[in-house]
Design goal:
Layout: H1 7-19, E1 23-28, E2 31-36, E3 43-47, H2 53-62, E4 68-74, H3 78-95, E5 98-103, E6 108-113, H4 124-136, H5 153-168, E7 171-172, H6 173-180, H7 185-191, E8 197-201, E9 204-207, H8 209-217
Parallel strand pairs: 3-4, 4-5
Antiparallel strand pairs: 1-2, 2-3, 5-6, 7-9, 8-9
């Protein structure tokens, strides 16, 4: 199936605007669509056959003319298309842009958000978690763009426990905590998310084969 042309979006968008009382004209200055209605600020719509960085850049540039800026793209297809479209709507909200989708088979235009100033809700819980991790992490052990291979404060503490056990043999959790300064040593070794430890006896932990391998590679 051939990709639709931007011009196929214009007629449905124009009709939709005219039904709401706008006078509509295409290709006015740099804008794809300009709509005027008595008492309202000018409304500008940028048309594209799909979301792209170019579309967003053009739409943001039109905000120098008016706050009422929309982007219009063909309606998505399938679940994957909806997920991508939904993510792009979220991005447009952050940019203060409105979003329209056009169903080309019958010309139905659907608004998904209006161009309003974006004010993100702050999460106190996420901020607290961020600050806790920042303060707990020893030094700056990571380089940016590690693709998930991150040295966290938890992993640093687990490594301290690993080194102590590898060098001292099976040890009571409380002694590991005292010797390493890792107050959550018992929790780390009991949860054993890394697979580096095992409980040798009640309250006593040792290094697993996987832990020995990590220790030898250090």
């Amino acid at each position: 199936m051939e990709k639709p042309a931007e011009t196929e979006l214009y007629a449905p968008v124009k009709s939709w605007l005219e039904e709401m009382g706008y006078e509509v004209k295409a290709e006015v200055g740099a804008a794809d669509v300009v709509a005027l209605r008595d008492g309202d600020a000018p409304l500008v719509i940028e048309l594209k056959t799909g979301f792209s960085l170019t579309l967003l850049q053009q739409a943001v540039a039109r905000q120098a003319i008016t706050d009422q800026v929309y982007v219009a793209v063909p309606r998505w297809k399938g679940k994957a298309g909806w997920r991508t479209f939904k993510g792009n709507v979220g991005l447009c909200k952050r940019l203060g842009l409105g979003v329209l989708s056009v169903r080309l088979c019958d010309g139905k235009v659907q608004p998904h958000c209006d161009p309003v100033a974006f004010r993100p809700r702050k999460s106190k819980a996420r901020l607290a978690a961020l600050m806790k991790e920042f303060k707990a992490r020893d030094g700056d052990p990571n380089a940016g763009g590690t693709r998930g291979q991150v040295m966290t404060a938890y992993k640093q503490d687990a490594l301290r426990c690993l080194v102590y056990l590898a060098e001292n043999g099976p040890t009571k959790a409380s002694d590991v905590a005292d010797a390493t300064g890792v107050t959550r040593a018992r929790l780390i070794m009991a949860d054993n998310h890394s697979g580096w430890f095992f409980r040798a006896a009640r309250g006593i932990y040792a290094v697993s084969d996987a832990g020995e391998t990590i220790y030898k590679e250090m």
